[in-house]
C-alpha cells in the first residue's frame, strides 16, 4: 500500500511556478482531510543551474542525476517507513504529500542527447510514488509582458533586441519542455497561466490529483 502522492512543477522562469507553489501550500493546509506530512522542495534542490557562493554553476549530467536520485530515494524511504507502520492509519495521519519544483523535465531538456535509461528509471519510480507532472506555460504573445512584469527594474536598461532574444529563449525552452513531457513516463497536466489566477490553478491541480 502506498502512503504517498504528489506532483512535480515544471516550467520556464516566469511561468508562475513560485506563485502556484505558494497557492498549493495554502490550499493543502486548509483541507482537513489532507496529508499532515508535506514535503516541498523548491528548484534550488533539484535544478541544473545553481548560484553557488555568488557564482553560477551548471551541474553535469551525472551530478544532476545523482541529486535527483537522492531526492527520490528520500521519498521512497519515507513511504517505506509509513508502509512498515501498517495500513490502519488514515491518509491524513500517515500520508505524505510532496511537491518538487524543476525535476525530470528540467533534466531532459538540459541533456536531450544523452541516454534516457536513468531518467526514465527515476520517472518510473516517481510514478509508483504517486507523482503527476504539472507543466505551467505562457502563451507566446504574452511572454514579453510576463517577463517584464515580474522584475521590471531588470528590463528598463535592456534594448528591444535583448528583450526579444530573452522572449525567444522562453518560447523555445517552453516548446522543448512540452515535447519532453510527451516523451516522459509520468502523466503531465499542462496549465496556461496567462490570467495569473494562481488560486484557481492550485484548485484545478488538487481536484485532478484527488
From TrEMBL:
InterPro entries: P-loop_NTPase (IPR027417). It comes from Paenibacillus agri. Gene3D superfamilies: P-loop containing nucleotide triphosphate hydrolases. This is Thymidylate kinase-like domain-containing protein. It comes from the Bacteria.
Amino acid at each position: 500500500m502506498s502512503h504517498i502522492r504528489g506532483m512535480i512543477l515544471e516550467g520556464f522562469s516566469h511561468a508562475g511556478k513560485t506563485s502556484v507553489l505558494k497557492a498549493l501550500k495554502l490550499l493543502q493546509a486548509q483541507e482537513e482531510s489532507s496529508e499532515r506530512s508535506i514535503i516541498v522542495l523548491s528548484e534550488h534542490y533539484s535544478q541544473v543551474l545553481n548560484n553557488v557562493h555568488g557564482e553560477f554553476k551548471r551541474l553535469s549530467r551525472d551530478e544532476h542525476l545523482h541529486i535527483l536520485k537522492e531526492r527520490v530515494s528520500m521519498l521512497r524511504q519515507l513511504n517505506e517507513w509509513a508502509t512498515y507502520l501498517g495500513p490502519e492509519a488514515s491518509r491524513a495521519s500517515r500520508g505524505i504529500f510532496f511537491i518538487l519544483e524543476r525535476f525530470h523535465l528540467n533534466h531532459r531538456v538540459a541533456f536531450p542527447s544523452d541516454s534516457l535509461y536513468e531518467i526514465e528509471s527515476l520517472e518510473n519510480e516517481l510514478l509508483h510514488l504517486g507523482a503527476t507532472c504539472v507543466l505551467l506555460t505562457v502563451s507566446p504573445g504574452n511572454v514579453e509582458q510576463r517577463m517584464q512584469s515580474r522584475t521590471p527594474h531588470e528590463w528598463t536598461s535592456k534594448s528591444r533586441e535583448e528583450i526579444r532574444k530573452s522572449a525567444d529563449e522562453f518560447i523555445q525552452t517552453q516548446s522543448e519542455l512540452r515535447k519532453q513531457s510527451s516523451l516522459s513516463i509520468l502523466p503531465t497536466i499542462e496549465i496556461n497561466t496567462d490570467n495569473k489566477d494562481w488560486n484557481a490553478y492550485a484548485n484545478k491541480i488538487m481536484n485532478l490529483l484527488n
